[in-house]
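Anyone able to model this chain together with guanosine-5'-diphosphate?
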Amino acid sequence: MNQDGKKRWVAVVGNPNAGKSTLFNALTGLRQRVGNYPGVTVEKRTGTAFTLHGEAIELIDLPGLYSLNPRSPDEKIAWQVLHGESSGVPRPDAVLCVVDASNLERNLFLVTQVMELGLPVLVALNMVDVAEGRGIRLHPQELSQKLGVKFIPTQAHRGKGLVELRAALGQSLAHPGPRQWTMPPPLAAAVGQIAAAWRESLPAESRAEGKALELLTGSNSGPEGAKKLAAAWRERFRKEAYDWSAAVVHARYSYLQTVLKEAGIGSGISGGSWTDWIDALVLHPVAGWGILAGMMMSLFVSIFSIASYPMEWIDAGFTGLGQWLQGWMPPGIVCDLLVDGVLAGVGGVVIFLPQILILFFFLGLLEDSGYLARAAFLLDRVMHPVGLSGKSFIPLLSSYACAIPGIMATRTVEDPKDRLTTILIAPLMSCSARIPVYTTLLAAAVPVALVPVWGKAAAMLGLYLLGTGSAFLLAWVFRKKMLGGGSPPLILELPPYRCPAFQTVALRMWERALIFLRRAGTVILALSILLWFVSSFPKSSEDESINLAGSFAGQLGHWIEPVIRPLGFDWRIGIGLVASFAAREVFVSTMSIVYHVGGEEEGLIQAMRTATWPDGALIYTPVTCLSLMVFYVYALQCLSTVAVAKRETGGWKWPVFMMIYMTGLAYLGAWLVQIVGRALGF
Ligand code: GDP
Ligand code: MG
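re: yes, here you go
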C-alpha cells in the first residue's frame, strides 16, 4: 500500500530487449490487461503482481527506452507516465529498472536518469547468464552500494531471482541518494541558477536541481521564472555553440565507467567467437540474403505443409456442424442464415488460424533468437538508399503480421518524415489476413497434384516480394521526392544470440490467436450475416444462382462489373472485392457464401475451378487468379488500418491518400497482369 492506502503502482523501465516484458510476464502471469494509453495507440500493459507477503501491486510495462529525453513518441509516453503527467495512469510509487547485465554501461545510463526522478528505485540485474557466459563478473552488492539503489540478479526467462525481487518489492524501497556525477562547469552554473529561481517560487521543492536539468532538456512544467531562465540558457549555449546535452551524456558515462571499474566489473570478452562467426555468415552481402530467403521459404513451406492437417480438422468440424444443423433444424431462412451465412463466413476464416499461428511462431523464434536484428542490419543496406533508416524495419516487419501494430510501432521512429513514409508503406507488407486469400487463389489457380508444396511456397514468396519491393520503391518516391529532406544515419545494435524462450513465443501466439478469433467472432461474423442477407434477398427464384444474380449483392456486382471486367473479374468477384473492402479475409467468406458451399474449403476451390463466364470460358484461369492476387497485394482493404492511420497521422489527409494510391496500384497491377498474360497467350 502507498500512503493513501491505495494499491502501489510500480513502473517497469528499461532499454529495449533488456527483458522487461519477460520479467513483467513472469511477475504478473495471466493477471494482465492490455490497452492503450489515453488518446494514443501505444500499447499499455498493466498487471497485478504479488510481493512475498501477498501484497498486490500494479505493474505497468513501459515502452523500451535508451534515455529519458522525450524524443520519439514512445519515449515521450514513458516520460509522461514517470512524471505523473499521463492521464489514466497514476504517478508510479516506485520504478523497477530492468537492465541487461551483459551491457551494463549503456543500460545503467538510463538508470542514472531514472534515479533523478525522485522515486524509489529497484534494479533487476537481468541476463546474468549472458553476462557470465561472456566472462563478465557481476558484483551486485558492490553495485548496490556504489549507486545507492538495490540490484537483484535475475534471469527473467527462467524465472530465476523472482522470489528475491518479490521480496524486495514488498519492502519499502529506498529513495536513491543525491546525484553523484559531476556536471561540467557551464552546465552547473545554468542548473544552479534555474534551480534557485525554482526554489524562489516553490520553496518546498526538494528536487529543484533535477527539475532544472529537465527544464533545460525540454520539459515544460515549472514556475514561469525558471522556464524563462532555462530558455535563456539554452539560447546562450546555442550561441556559444556549447553542446550541453552531449556534455551531460559524457559526464554520466564517465561517472558510470568509474563506478563499474571500482565495483570490479570489466567489459568481459566481447562477443563470443561463435557469435562473430555466425554474424559473418548471416550478415554476408551474398550469403546473408540467401539465408534470409531460405528462412522465409521454410516459413512458407511449413505454413502450407504443417498447417494442412489442423486445417482439415477445422474444415471437417465446420462441415459436420453444418450437416448436423441441417439435419436437426427445419429447412428455412433461419437454417440458411446459420449454415450459408454464419458457418460459411466464420468457418471460411477460422480455418486459417493454424497458418497464422505458424507465422507468429516463426516470427517469435526469429525475434527471440536475435536473428531479426541481423535481418534489420542486412535490410538497412537497401533501406538507406530509399531514404529510410533501419528504425523503420521493426514497424515494417510487424506489418507482415498486421499493419495495425506495424503502424503503431512507427512511434519509435523519431524523424517525422521517416515515420509518415513508414506509415504510408506499411500496409503494402503482406499481412496475415492476406494469407487466406492467397492460399485460396493459389489452390484455385492450379490443381494441387501438379504443384509440389515448395512451388506454392515459392509463389507465396513471390507475392511477398512483390509487396515488399513495391513498398521500397514507393518509400523512395514518398521520402525523397514528395517529402524531401535528408535521412538520419542508422545506429543499430546487434543483440547476442539467445535460445528462444518457449513461454515468450507461446504467449505471443496465444495473444494473436485471441485477436484473430475475436475478429472472426465480431467483425467477420457481422459482415457474414450482412453478406448472406444481401446475397439472398430479394428472393427472386428457387434456383440459388439465379437468386444470387438478382439479389442486392448481385445487382451491385453487376453494376461494377464493367469497371473490373478489364481485370478479368466477373460480378461475383466484384461482390467479393466490395465485401472485402472492410477486411481482406472476408473475400474468402464471401466466395463461400456466393458459391453456397458452407464453411468447406475444398468445396469452394472446386466451385471456383468450375465457375464459367456465360460463354462457357473458365473464370479462374491462372492469369485471372494471379491478377486477383496482385490486386490483393496492393489494395488497402482494411478499415482498421485506415482508422489507425488517421489516428497516427492526426487527420484524414494521409489515410485518404493511402486509399487512393493503393487502390490505383491494385487496379493498375491487376490490369497489367491481364494484358501481359493475354499477350503471352495464356
Ligand atoms: P523487452 O524488450 O525489454 O521487453 O525484452 P523482452 O522481455 O522481450 O526480452 C528480450 C529477449 O530476452 C527475449 O528473447 C527473452 O526471452 C530474453 N531474456 C529475457 N530475460 C533473459 C535472461 O535473463 N537471460 C537470457 N538469456 N535471456 C533473457
Ligand atoms: Mg517489451
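The radius of gyration is 29 Å.
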